[in-house]
Amino acid sequence: MMSAKSSDREAEVRAFDETKLGVKGIVDAGVTTIPSIFINPISKRLPPPKPNSTGCDGQFNFPVIDLRASENGLDHWKKVVEEIREASETWGFFQVINHGIPDTVLDEILKGVKGFFELDNEVKKGYYSRDFANDKFAYHCNADLYSAVAVNWRDSFLCYMAPNPPTPDEIPPVCREILIEYSKQVMKLGKMLFEILSEALGLQQCHLLDMGCLDGLSILGHYYPACPQPELTIGTPKHADGSYITILLQDQLGGLQVLHQNHWVDVPPGALVVNIGNALQIASNDKFKSVEHRVPAKYAGPRISIASFFSTFYLETTQKYGPIKELLSDENPPKYREITMKEYSIYNMKKGLDETSNLDYFRI
């Protein structure tokens, strides 16, 4: 039987969901205290932030890799492969510069995403949906809104750009052209990264591409409004991505934090961020690491970020994947059972962002 407290909370969450205005709607109403559904249990709260300060450990230098070096002959290519191998094994994250995506495209996609969330409310409501499996463009607040312990301080849209992209008319005009262009650019970069990552695993350059790692692309646009009580809530809680890799663009507010050697490290803005996801940790049999990361709520805002996930979560396929057989041996037996991407997706959506690893469920 549901307790009165649980029933009240579910009613509050449903009432919030039915406004279709998200966190931005709360901020626009001029609140100075956040609603109770956003308040995290004390055990999950971050240390109180200070204005203009992250409070994170600054002793580590986040890996930054110059991809232009890969154009300068075999020796430079090998250097890039080695740098990405080391970062993928030790950090699970790295930034890339000289990646081929023009600055104008990066600027315009940030403007386009921001522009969508700042549309007239009645226009924006028309895109609100929680049917993530069928709607190719879905604006929402928290995919795990009804299962999470607390609602996170962010609004999002999810758009599937490969292999079956929406028609142009299904994408809001304010970000239509730039979302299509940005997706093309990200696909080119993704292809290069998968070639490098294949070699970093000691495989043929085409191996991860032949596995289908580039077949699915979904783009998640995030809008983190300024928060009047950031010490009580969070933008995105600690989690690891389910993708093969994720390419992230964050605006100049920064905010992304990565867990490294038991320290939370700030990822500086200004360069694209690449991280290994759970699917590639499984495929590499734990050689590459899918690392936890988070985004605190902030006094300042809005913060804009765009995450591009390479995965095939929502494709109807019976194809199974697991540790790559060429990487296995008597000394390195498989650590995960074979699963379908759909199986992973169903488990992930049911579990939500609860700060525990999805990988344990699939370990042998």
TrEMBL record:
The family this protein is said to belong to: Belongs to the iron/ascorbate-dependent oxidoreductase family.
Keyword Oxidoreductase annotated: yes
Sorted UniProt keywords: Iron, Metal-binding, Oxidoreductase
Organism: Spinacia oleracea (Spinach)
GO MF, one example: dioxygenase activity
Entry superkingdom: Eukaryota
Family matches, as PANTHER family: 1-AMINOCYCLOPROPANE-1-CARBOXYLATE OXIDASE HOMOLOG 1-LIKE, OXIDOREDUCTASE, 2OG-FE II OXYGENASE FAMILY PROTEIN
Keyword Phosphoprotein: no
Lineage, uppermost ranks: Eukaryota, Viridiplantae, Streptophyta, Embryophyta, Tracheophyta
Protein name: 1-aminocyclopropane-1-carboxylate oxidase homolog 1
Residues covered by the Fe2OG dioxygenase domain: 215-312
Gene name for this UniProt entry: LOC110801451
